[in-house]
Design a protein that fits this description.
Helices cover about 50% and strands about 10% of the residues. The protein is of the alpha/beta class. The longest helix is centred in the middle third of the chain and has 23 residues. About 50% of the residues are buried.
């Protein structure tokens, strides 16, 4: 048995949790920088709740609202510099995974004003720990509220690159499912598929533990029936929104314990080069992953099917039913470049049976040749 676990984030959940527990932010300082995108933070109601709470606490704040989907390294750096120049004591990230990931990086840049952008990927260059930050999630998928992972998009080359470090954990995560009610159908479905990818990849990871297994099962038990219902008729009520959001947090806890497997790096390419939303991009490869998992760890596959009362093939069919992508074709050279890029990636190595280059090429050919 393996009970390894590290989770320093204080999660406060429930409707109205920001207002009910706003005093926790008083412990973080007197000035903060709020990081958001252009619309979601306001549309969800979270921005209004946070600013009202800050006003009542006497905490001064500025807002940086330039974060876009698949956040850039440059925007996180710019937000960090703004926080440093305005003498912010802490950050509040309000949004989906893109905003929360950018906030993690910005908190590090703010604490290390002399750090060059690419030096974020070199922890030995950091002189100070990241500033404290608060997560307020508005989507039900990434689980970024409870992970120490930040995924940013570089300009040259145009690729997604992640960093994982304990310094990036949030101090507080306000988890209010009400903030997810404004998500569109496309975003809701893509985020749910992302959470399924987190849970299944964590469960079958070669470095999974008993704790991550239980987190994954709990997350899937919430997400799968909710997504099944929404796939037939997209009429999300409060109960379904709650299932998806809390399920995504359970899946995030699983992800936090062992990381992702090969659907994630392969999915990065579909997002970088073809504009496929992250969750759908990972979902393209979920079926391939589950089939290899059943081949290399049949007992664990049987255990998961029993726990969920659902076959892995049924999970694959559900994911395939909701995933939306454009028609994508790749030539042999493109596929070989992908295989070369990821051949030594940790995500590949900890996948069930690994994923040798020839096996990766077969998966890519099946989808895109």
């Amino acid at each position: 048995m393996n009970f390894n676990l590290y989770m320093p984030v204080r999660v406060i959940s429930g409707e109205g949790c920001v207002t009910a527990h706003k005093g926790l932010m008083k412990e973080l300082g007197q000035r903060c920088l709020i990081i958001t995108g252009k619309h979601a933070a306001a549309a969800s109601g979270a921005l209004a709740d946070i600013t009202r709470a800050l006003d009542e606490l006497g905490i001064a704040y500025l807002q940086y609202d330039k974060i876009v989907e698949n956040p850039t390294l440059e925007s996180a750096y710019e937000a960090g510099q703004l926080a440093h120049s305005s003498q912010a004591d802490f950050f509040i990230g309000i949004g989906g995974g893109s905003v929360l990931d950018a906030t993690k990086a910005a908190a590090l840049f703010a604490a290390n004003p002399g750090l060059a952008p690419m030096d974020i990927y070199n922890p030995s260059a950091w002189r100070n720990p990241a500033l404290s930050w608060v997560a307020v999630g508005t989507t039900a998928g990434t689980g970024s509220e409870v992970t120490a992972v930040s995924v940013l998009t570089l300009s040259q080359p145009h690729i997604k690159k992640s960093i994982t470090h304990p310094a990036l954990y949030a101090k507080i995560a306000y988890a209010d499912p009400l903030y997810t009610h404004s998500c569109s159908q496309n975003l809701t479905l893509s985020a749910a598929v992302d959470a399924i990818a987190h849970a299944t990849e964590a469960y079958f990871s070669e470095v999974a533990s008993d704790t991550t297994d239980q987190f994954a099962i709990k997350g899937l038990a919430l997400i799968l029936p909710a997504l099944e219902q929404l796939s037939q008729s997209f009429e999300p009520n409060a109960d379904l929104r709650q299932q998806l959001y809390y399920g995504s947090l359970w899946a995030g806890l699983a992800l936090n314990g062992c990381g992702t497997c090969f659907p994630h790096p392969l999915g990065y390419v579909l997002t970088e080069d073809y504009g496929v939303p992250h969750g759908f991009a990972c979902g393209v490869f979920t079926g391939d992953f589950l089939r290899r998992a059943a081949e290399y760890n049949p007992q664990k596959a049987a255990d998961l099917e029993k726990a969920l009362n659902m076959k892995l093939e049924d999970i694959t069919q559900l994911v395939n039913r909701v995933v939306k992508t454009p028609a994508i074709k790749m030539d042999k050279a493109k596929m070989e470049s992908i295989a070369k890029r990821f051949e030594t990636a940790r995500n590949i190595q900890i996948s069930p049976g690994g994923l040798p280059a020839d096996a990766m090429m077969e998966i890519l050919k099946k989808h895109f040749a």
